[in-house]
């Protein structure tokens, strides 16, 4: 038994509504169940209850056991002084407010339909091999309900990403150019080098980087130098030697501090994702667009965004993946798939946050763009597909990641539209 089941029962009125009696023997009539409170304080606000022909207005608090009132120290918290009803699964102790007045208690287990408890038990039945709790039933859920829930989950995921963006904004003293620069670095680093590239964004001020924006060679020297890719074993390569000299000059000129910057990894990466290639591509992006931030936040379509990111690594990397070692000649362009990843994880969160900062709503525009991007292919999406949940685009695949990580794996079925639908 979990406390969230009590919240579900109360919120959706899955309780016998007649002949209710408190554990103190008082007759009870529920006039208004109140509003579910997901923040600190009592669980339901502004309820209205008739107790022995006296109407009370106030809050409702819920616990598995009455004694949890004292375990949570509610008797010391003035926010609980206006609780008019204590709803519990098991009444094991009499409860008083801090003025020593007794709080009426309703023992819920006496008034719950057995079918609801059986459905709840089935949903949470332990099975080590299950992907998610509702895997046998999710395919039968109404498609309209699922689509609406996935849309809500996408914006919930976007809000989570927004928290990180606003943290960057605070650290940069409201410098949106620095925020974009750091976001792009983190995203270009992907999963393996995201932390290393993020440390570069924290150590390198965009105002310094911007001064080199008309000189691609100087931008690359900053990137490669600060990430320690110009250190260690000496490479007998003229390009490498010149980059190293340039970085030594830039480091002294701007008093650059690279001690906190993590060295990126090559291990387990396909060559197109090597940090050398990704950093060169990002440098070329800034060399191509002198006012990248304004172009990014004003882009209104997926096509416009793809056009912005049509860049390649510099010429040296046409026949290299690492310094000093030649490879088969090929232009190292940003692929369409990688650009989609940048849009999902950097550009749309930035647009969302910038609009909130300005007091604008761009939700419809963001939905139009994310819905045009192809769905992601990963284990979570494939598993949902195996169990009958077919999705169409990146908005829905992003939503599934939110659903799986924040609800399914944490057994928050009673806070999920699918779980509550199965119980209702």
TrEMBL record:
Domain of life from the UniProt record: Bacteria
Full protein name: DUF2851 family protein
